[in-house]
Design goal:
heterodimer, A: 829 residues, alpha/beta, six-stranded mixed β-sheet, 26 helices, 11% strand, B: mainly alpha, 2 domains, two-stranded antiparallel sheet
């Protein structure tokens, strides 16, 4: 719908869309910085801005900081250092006193929402109460993807047009007042006209729209997202934020007309001229300053240990040759499985890289009516991989059948199937097993199916996408992959390429549990395709010319690690030559043991499992958990993430990082100019930074920036969750995903020379913003001297750790089983 | 003896479990879940075993006079238990589902703020369920019925720091209580019909029932209609349906057990329980069947347009319960029991797996998507379809209807007394009450005729006070005092009616005075602490800072509204027994004021203590969330 509104209002709406939560429908859930709209500002300033304008709580409650300080989890020395750095020696006592003893104070009243309050004052009307229910119902019926049995009956080419059509052709209407109906049905009505009626002073129109939309940021944000990207709905709907606003204004006029008849006028007369305007300039605030200092003290207490630990590395301890090599995703969940693989096969080498393995494409499973993107969200792939000869069939479950909701169907089903439900429920509570309702990472692709990896014909396009890769593209992809992780020589007989995915049941946020580098899908197809390409003789021929010599006896094997169940499967094992087949069988045992121990380590955070039992037994229980209806935390996903280490594995293999680190393998010697480093940082800053900040904000304000407890969540139209019947959509992460998370910004450490890193990060403005504005912290470790440099105000500055030494952990298994708390950095003996 | 012991145990065991659960300190998740699980498992085993035993003995209905709470010769208030097929089915289904849900919630609620509160309430609900199911007379049933209402309020408002759950909890509680008017009046009328507190087993005596009915057809129909209203409210039938989807605010398992399966079928239970009483009244059967049919026809299209999974299940379930009403009216009792059990299991499971619907349906769509056709070209059928669609989206105005017909007019009436404040209340009320008392002690002053009107007059006075309490926006203390004053008015009104022992009035008023004074003290304390945030205009969420005051106030409010923790509970029934058979109006006044007094008190509690906390130093949710 276009109304030809002047650019003023359009600009406001664009801005509004920018500030609203940008969360896609559930099936495409991808982590991102919740406060992305403030990213142009330095972190702490942005937080203050967000808090004062929108009423978010942006830091942890001060009581939490103080508690951690008294528990010695915030280092007193580092706290003093932070205060000294920011306030100077003279102010130290004063500020320390404030930090420790000032009574808890309230956040300032948010500026958003102030104008709308005057409706209540002026006309004793709670417009939210009058309007929200109808508005939510209409927009949710329009966008519904398949919960309602009776679909939205009108055409779905535009929200407002559809509502007009409904209202025009129905005996019963939502909009009752004559004036409002006329305004609705008249195609010449402009949004300005409505605002003129409601507010009557252009100065406040923009802010009024902020008030109005931020009373239900969930739905407005969803509409704004869908306006930009309608491909995230399978059943297409055209909608725009402007349409939503238009309808809401009309509903408001209607409510006022119905309740007050003639006796109401525009609100402007009631607005005092000194009303603080949204986005007015900020003033200094001691309140935020105190929180900022605490926040940094909390962060540096952890960072400091990590930096010290990284400085203690000794790569010469490790052999250059390996029994096998395995690539995993950069994901923090792979941090521990790699540790165990290395523990049970010390001669093995593991690598970390973004889990799409440098192969961006869409995937279309056999019989699938749509394509799914399997690469990082910002990339728009130009290739398609199609699956054929798949044997996967999805079972049906009568409990989701529409017939149970009918009169006769319901009558018949409740008296028959109803009793079976009782048994089924009892079984799934006491003996959980796979059900059609669950999400399994292994069902993403049939391992026995065929994939269209090679482009048959250059011109063969499917919906504008090239089916399969050309030889050149394949060689480039593998070359990029291998060089960026530093694996260019000493190839072992077997090189594993292992993607990851997750399994869960009763989990609306399932997409957030899969591989983030594959747009919230399981990484199986990418891993399998990468391995297959790596095995192609013609590809290797080209690679040899480019200086990467892969011995003929070396074979790539694709695989998938299910991080919830801790199970692995491998693809195309039949192509292995017999020598490798033997090795593979042996390696599989190593993986199995590693998986058992990984499950055991994870179990220390699960309340349903006794972690001190034997690894294999614990693993069985962990598997069952993943299939249990009543488990709200099938796995902890990215919770506790705080770190991203970019460098050679040999330089961090000696550290126990407690699953808190994203690990990206990188060898600066292969990449002296930092070309590949740029590629890595370009992805790492927004992806890991986005994950980290979403966890941060969902933790510090789970009520407004997170989704609240998921226990009462109700699925709306298959696109979002809300509380109860008439609640707004909830964005961000549910409380159950962040319980154990400590709100730390992520620390990215890079092993390279500071001048190169400095040059590299400045190449791309978007990437640089992350570092320059401190949304992620960056530390560079000099590869030769091991000196640490912190990136601060545009340069790298030398950093001396306060930590004197790192303890060596003697019996890790025992330590892990003994506590469910976050653990400090240890040296692995 | 076995019977006596076992049936009493079915109530005692949940009671003991509930009491123990109150004593366990917060934070001990395992203790709560184990206690709940063990006690409900024991109960399930006990019930299963007993049912087998009872079936072996020939399935004869059993009645147990358990405990006389009050006896003055003419009037006895006793707890009476009853066991027959209906009891057996409801007991077993309830125990089985609760057994599964306690196990389920043990893990599901892990790390949740209100873990203790949840299990307390769940056990309390289970106690209420069992009391209601094994009740052998109206009094015992009413006891359980009231407890169900409170348990329901507490579970819906489980997320008490958010606006919508609290608002909806108050709404559901109000509708429940409106249904309770039916039960109170049915109790009153049946007391006059049988001249005793009739036990359900006596209703089985067909000769007795038909003899009474032939003599008192009118009062029989009156009772049937009262029961019909109570059943409709509890089972979300027309016009009360809209509360059920709005009750889906608590954690999913509590929604499943309460609104999916057990609680919502209590209307069905009530009708089945009283079946022998109205089975020979064709009017009653037509009313019940017709209501069921109407509800099914309305709920079906509403279910079809719901875009949220839980409300869709809720309306689908309402439609099925409508059909159960039809089956009851047709006398198909066995079928109803099967239908009830099946529906309860099915909806429980559907609600529990409701979060899975996203993954399941999206996958289904991914592989089987068919674009929708828009076939409607013919303009009239299109108009009809659109109208039906919109009406269903609006839930046929059911939600607004109740508001418009019941709550708005009452608020309007109450506003007529807006001149009252906490300070001047006594100036108006005391003289009136003194005159009343004076008249009462010197009845010769009043003429015979005016004496006939005095009970009604004071009944009406009490009613108005309650309406004012219900609509009060400024002064919480005034609202509380008005509810107390209402009780005094009721006592006086009934006292005019016939001469009876002062002790009875004393029983009634003792609970009122004690709990009223405690409640007032809490409000006074809260007012001193939170001067700026102390009125009934909005929700303040003071429970965040004053959880103890909140608890004490809740208990005081419950006692004041005649909840079975204060002698007022017996007093109410006692006083009603002195309202004559032909004084429908007085009975209605008193029943309504009694019910709305309760709503007014819960409203005070909710507005002051629940909802998003007014202070801004910690996170609070948006009102719309």
């Amino acid at each position: 719908m276009t109304h030809g509104v002047s650019s003023g209002l359009d600009k406001v709406i664009r801005e509004l869309a920018h500030y609203l939560p940008a969360q896609s429908p559930l099936k495409d859930f991808v982590h991102h910085n919740t406060l992305h709209a403030f990213q142009y500002l330095p972190f702490h300033q942005a937080l203050q801005e967000a808090a004062e304008n929108f009423g978010y709580k942006v830091y942890w409650n001060i009581e939490n900081f103080r508690k951690r300080y008294h528990e010695k989890k915030i280092n007193a020395e580092i706290l003093e250092r932070v205060i000294l750095n920011h306030k100077g020696a003279d102010e130290l006592t004063h500020w320390k006193n404030l930090l420790l003893h000032q009574p808890v104070k309230a956040y300032p009243e948010p500026k958003v929402g102030q104008i709308r309050k005057f409706w209540r004052k002026a006309y004793h009307l709670n417009l939210d109460k009058e309007v929200h229910q109808v508005l939510f119902r209409l927009v949710s019926s329009y966008l519904d993807q398949g919960i309602a049995l009776w679909r939205f009956p009108a055409k779905t080419k535009g929200f407002l047009a559809a509502i007009r059509e409904l209202e025009k052709n129905s005996f019963s209407t939502f909009i009752k007042s004559k004036r409002a109906r006329k305004l609705l049905l008249d195609p010449h009505t402009q949004l300005e006209d409505l605002l003129q009626l409601l507010i009557g002073n252009e100065r406040y129109h923009g802010q009024y729209l902020f008030d109005q939309q931020f009373a239900h940021p969930g739905w407005s944000g969803m509409v704004a997202v869908l306006e930009q990207n309608d491909s995230s709905l399978l059943d297409k709907r055209k909608i725009s934020l402007k349409d939503l606003i238009f309808l809401e204004c009309l509903l408001e006029i209607d409510a006022l007309d119905r309740r007050r008849g003639e006796s109401w006028a525009a609100l402007a007369a009631w607005i005092p001229s000194d009303l603080p305007l949204i986005f007015d300039k900020l003033s200094y605030s001691e309140f935020f300053e105190i929180h900022k200092l605490w926040q940094e003290a909390l962060e540096w207490t952890y960072y400091d240990q990590v930096i010290k630990g990284l400085q203690l590395s000794h790569e010469a301890d490790f052999k250059e040759e390996a029994t096998f090599q395995a690539m995993f995703c950069i994901d923090d969940r792979c941090c521990s499985i790699r540790r165990y693989v290395e523990r049970f096969e010390p001669e093995a080498q593991t690598f970390g890289t973004a889990g799409f393995f440098n192969l961006p494409f869409y995937f279309q499973p056999e019989h699938g009516k749509f394509m799914t993107k399997v690469c990082p969200a910002p990339i728009t792939p130009t290739h398609l991989i199609k699956e054929t000869e798949s044997k996967i069939r999805h079972e049906k479950d009568v409990h989701f059948s529409r017939h149970t909701k009918g009169i006769f169907g319901g009558w018949a089903i409740s008296q028959t199937v109803g009793f079976w439900s009782a048994l089924k429920l009892a079984k799934s509570i006491f003996f959980p097993s796979e059900t059609p309702a669950m999400v399994s990472s292994f069902k993403h692709m049939d391992p026995k199916g065929k994939l269209s990896i090679s482009a048959q014909n250059h011109k063969h396009l499917h919906q504008g996408l090239q089916v399969g890769f050309t030889l050149e593209e394949k060689a480039n992809a593998v070359e990029g992959l291998l060089k960026s992780i530093g694996l260019v020589k000493n190839f072992a007989p077997l090189v594993y390429v292992i993607g990851h995915g997750a399994s869960s049941v009763n989990n609306t946020h399932y997409a957030g549990y899969d591989c983030g580098a594959c747009s919230g899908r399981s990484g199986s197809v990418n891993a399998r395709v990468a391995a297959a390409i790596g095995n192609m003789p013609e590809v290797r021929e080209i690679l040899t010319k480019r200086g990467i010599l892969i011995p003929e006896t070396t074979q790539f094997v694709g695989g998938l690690h299910d991080t919830t169940r801790d199970e692995m499967e491998f693809y195309d094992e039949e192509i292995l030559i017999s020598a490798n087949r033997l090795l593979h069988e042996r390696n599989k045992q190593t993986f199995d043991t590693a998986l058992d121990y990984n499950a055991k380590e994870r179990s220390r955070r699960f309340n349903t499992v006794n972690s001190s039992q034997e690894a294999r037994k614990v693993h069985e229980k962990v598997k069952k958990r993943a299939m249990s209806l009543f488990v709200t935390r099938p796995e902890w996903n990215h919770a506790t993430n705080a770190l991203c280490v970019i460098g050679k594995r040999e330089n961090n293999r000696h550290l126990f990082l407690d699953k808190r680190a994203f690990l990206n393998s990188y060898d600066h010697r292969i990449d002296p100019e930092g070309t590949y480093l740029l590629g890595i940082l370009k992805a790492v800053a927004p992806v890991c930074g986005g994950i980290n900040l979403e966890y941060y904000f969902s933790k510090v304000d789970n009520d407004r920036l997170g989704a609240g407890s998921k226990l009462p969540h109700n699925v709306m139209g298959l696109i979002g969750v809300a509380n109860g019947m008439d609640g707004d959509l909830r964005t961000g992460l549910p409380l159950q995903m962040v319980n154990i998370h400590d709100p730390l910004r992520i620390l990215i450490t890079v092993e390279h020379f500071p001048d190169i890193v400095l040059k590299i990060i400045q190449i791309q403005k978007q990437t640089y913003e992350w570092f320059a504005n401190d949304w992620v912290k960056l530390v560079c470790i000099h590869p030769e001297s091991k000196q640490a440099y912190v990136f601060k105000e545009g340069t790298f500055m030398e950093y001396q750790t306060a930590t004197k030494g790192i303890d060596t952990v003697q019996n890790l298994d025992e330590l892990l089983a003994s506590t469910s708390e976050n653990l400090p950095v240890f040296l692995i003996s | 003896m076995v019977n006596h012991l076992m049936i009493s145990l079915f109530v005692l065991l949940p009671l003991v479990a509930f009491l123990i659960s109150l004593l366990i300190p917060k934070g001990r998740e395992n203790s709560f879940s184990r206690l709940a699980f063990v006690s409900v498992s024991l109960q399930l085993v006990g019930i299963t075993g007993y049912i087998c035993y009872w079936a072996g003995m020939g399935m004869h209905p059993i009645n147990i006079r358990d405990w006389v709470l009050y006896n003055n010769g003419d009037y006895r208030f006793l707890l009476d238990f009853y066991f027959d097929t209906l009891t057996a089915v409801f007991l077993w289904v309830g125990a089985f589902i609760t057994f599964l849900i306690t196990r389920y919630s043990r893990f599901y609620l892990h790390l949740e703020e209100g873990y203790k509160r949840f299990f307390n309430t769940l056990l309390f609900f289970y106690l209420a369920y069992n009391v209601t199911v094994v009740a052998g007379n109206f009094e015992t049933l009413f006891l359980g019925w009231e407890m169900l209402g409170i348990a329901s309020f507490l579970l819906i408002a489980f997320y008490r720091d958010r606006y919508l759950p609290v608002r909806n909890a108050v709404k559901v509680f109000s509708i429940y209580r409106i249904g309770d008017i039916g039960i109170i009046l049915a109790m009153w009328a049946s007391h006059h019909l049988w001249h005793e507190n009739i036990s359900f087993i006596k209703l089985m005596d067909k000769d007795l029932v038909s003899e009474q009915m032939s003599m008192h057809g009118g009062i029989g129909l009156f009772i049937a209609i009262c029961l019909w209203i109570a059943a409709a409210a509890k089972s979300a039938q027309f016009p009360f349906s809209s509360w059920l989807p709005r009750a889906m605010e608590g954690p999913t398992p509590s929604s499943a057990i309460f609104y999916g399966s057990l609680s919502v079928h209590f209307g069905v239970f009530l009708l089945l329980r009283t079946f022998p009483f109205w089975e020979h009244q064709p009017t009653a059967r037509i009313l019940i069947g017709g209501l069921g049919l109407l509800t099914a026809l309305l709920a079906y299209p509403i279910a079809r347009v719901q875009t949220t999974i839980k409300t869709q299940i809720a309306y689908a379930s309402i439609a099925q319960i409508g059909i159960m009403f039809i089956e009851i009216a047709l006398g198909l009792q066995t079928l109803v029991l099967i239908h009830f059990a099946g529906n309860a299991f099915l909806r429980t499971y559907q609600l529990l797996v409701s979060p899975s619907v996203v993954a399941y349906m999206i996958r289904d769509q991914f592989y089987h998507f068919m674009p929708k056709a828009i076939p409607l070209e013919n303009s009239f059928s299109k108009r009809l379809a659109y109208s039906l669609y919109i009406l269903s989206l609006k839930e046929w105005h059911l939600d607004t209807l109740l508001n418009l017909v019941i709550f708005k007019p009452i608020k309007k009436l109450g506003r007529k007394l807006d001149f009252l404040t906490p300070k001047n209340l006594f100036r108006y009320f005391l003289p009136l009450f003194l005159i009343g008392s004076l008249l009462y002690f010197n009845q010769d002053f009043a003429s015979e005729i005016s004496r006939n009107y005095l009970p009604g007059l004071f009944g009406f006075l009490g009613l108005m006070m309650v309406f004012k309490a219900f609509s009060e926006r400024k002064h919480p203390r005034l609202a509380l005092m008005l509810v107390m004053a209402n009780h005094f008015c009721i006592a006086l009104a009934v006292a005019f009616n016939e001469t009876f022992d002062y002790n009875q009035t004393l029983i009634y008023l003792s609970g009122v005075v004690v709990s009223g004074v405690i409640g007032y003290w809490v409000l006074e304390r809260l007012r001193n602490k939170e001067k700026d945030y102390f009125d009934l205009n909005q929700y303040y969420g003071h429970v965040y800072e004053h959880p103890r005051l909140a608890l004490v106030f809740l208990l005081a409010a419950l006692a004041l509204m005649g909840f079975p923790i204060s002698p007022t509970f017996i007093g109410v029934d006692l006083l009603f027994s002195h309202i004559h058979e032909d004084q429908y109006i007085l009975a209605a006044f008193n029943a309504i004021s009694f019910i709305f007094g309760g709503i007014a008190l819960i409203r005070i509690y909710a507005r002051l203590f629940l909802g998003p906390h007014i202070k801004n130093y910690h996170t609070t949710a948006l009102k719309s969330s």
